[in-house]
Design goal:
By secondary structure, the chain is α/β, with parallel strands linked by helices. Helix 1 packs parallel to helix 6 and helix 5 packs antiparallel against helix 7. The protein is built from 8 helices and 15 strands. A hairpin with a 4-residue loop joins strand 3 and strand 4. The chain is elongated. It folds into 2 domains: 202 residues, Formyl transferase, N-terminal domain (Rossmann fold); 96 residues, Formyl transferase, C-terminal domain (Methionyl-tRNA Fmet Formyltransferase, Chain A, domain 2), CATH 3.10.25.10. The strands form 3 sheets. The chain has a 7-stranded mixed beta sheet with strand order 5-2-1-6-7-8-9. Strands 10, 11, 12, 13, 14 and 15 form a 6-stranded antiparallel beta sheet that branches.
């Protein structure tokens, strides 16, 4: 049996781990341990909560290590004791050291949800949605010190549905990665000398860093860009706008097919009865908001929001307001 260790943390990658656990033994793969991030305080009460991968491992009686640092000497000793042949990483959340990478007998491989060398880095799915792509890929590659630059073991393309958000697409891509992962592991177990296909570094692109304040809508952007940003930023950091001094989270939005609300006034809002949507003027075109969540309220449909307004004649959405009183 080939001894496999799985490293990951978020909910989205549990599907890959589950597939390996369920299908691996039949093809000679022994899942000997899981490595995940430590438990962290969650919620107002600050209750220590395991990341989903660790929770899954413990609930299925799989050995689970949760080091604060993957470089810690005591963890490295525990890792060596596992005697892994292959390590699989999937959104683990820490950079691995040379000392760590030298331990697995065959090597360490990574599941990356992009068409490498496109979108190297931590946010490949949001990056693809920000760019309005209609397809992406899952790549299984060797892990090296240089970011996502290892040789490619396998790669498969997948279409992006127009309505998919970052969270939904990420989960689907890791779900689709299961069979690919098993094929890659059995290939390496059969031929440990397999080196994969080198990436063309000249074609490499890198993910942009996503900041929390990027979720605030800039109404000077065109409608398609606003919708792409909504898809990319769901579930984090989310998308919002302001109405006066009230913050409003947007939970459902699309490019509007009707006429602009008011071409000369960015952010002006009207209610379109046939589509039951708030139509908001963008820099080019307009968007239709069908669900939203005002601060202090529950998620609601656009009609409920509109009916609750006292002044429907002058509704305008805008960015945040800085200390000088300027809209951003």
């Amino acid at each position: 049996m080939t001894r496999v260790v799985f490293m990951g943390s978020p909910e989205e990658v549990v599907a890959s781990l589950m597939y390996l656990r369920e299908r691996g033994p039949a093809v000679g793969l022994d899942l000997v341990a899981v490595i995940s991030q430590p438990a962290r305080p969650v919620g107002r009460g600050g209750r220590l909560t395991d990341p989903p991968v660790a929770e899954f491992a413990k609930s299925h009686q799989i050995v689970c290590l949760q080091p604060e640092s993957s470089k810690a000497a005591d963890f490295i000793q525990d890792f060596i004791a596992l005697s892994p042949d292959i390590v699989v990483t999937a959104a683990y959340g820490q950079i691995l050291s040379d000392e760590f990478l030298a331990v697995p007998k065959i090597g360490t491989i990574n599941i990356h949800p992009s068409r490498l060398p496109q979108y190297r880095g931590a946010t490949p799915v949001p990056a693809a949605l920000l760019d309005g792509l209609t397809s992406t890929a899952v790549t299984i590659l060797f892990t090296v010190k240089k970011l996502d630059a290892g040789n490619i073991i396998s790669q498969k393309d997948f279409a992006i549905d127009q309505a998919e958000t970052s969270g939904i697409l990420t989960a689907r891509l890791f779900l689709e990665s299961g069979p690919m992962l098993l094929e890659a592991l059995t290939l390496l177990a059969r031929d440990p000398s397999f080196k994969g296909i080198p990436q063309d570094d000249n074609k490499a692109t890198f993910c942009r860093k996503i900041e929390k304040d990027m979720g605030c809508i800039d109404w000077s952007l065109d409608a398609a860009t606003i919708v792409n940003r909504f898809r990319a930023f769901e579930p984090w950091p989310g998308t919002w706008t302001m109405a006066g001094d009230r913050r409003i989270a947007i939970t459902e939005i699309r490019v509007c097919s009707s006429s602009p609300a008011s071409p000369d006034r960015l952010g002006v809002v009207i209610f379109d009865k046939p589509s039951k949507a708030l139509v908001v003027q963008a820099g080019s075109g307009c968007v239709a908001i069908t669900r939203l969540r005002p601060a202090g309220s529950k998620d609601m449909d656009a009609a409920s929001f509109w009916n609750g307004l006292k002044d429907k004649a002058n509704v305008t959405f805008h960015g945040v307001v800085d200390v000088g009183g300027h809209q951003l």
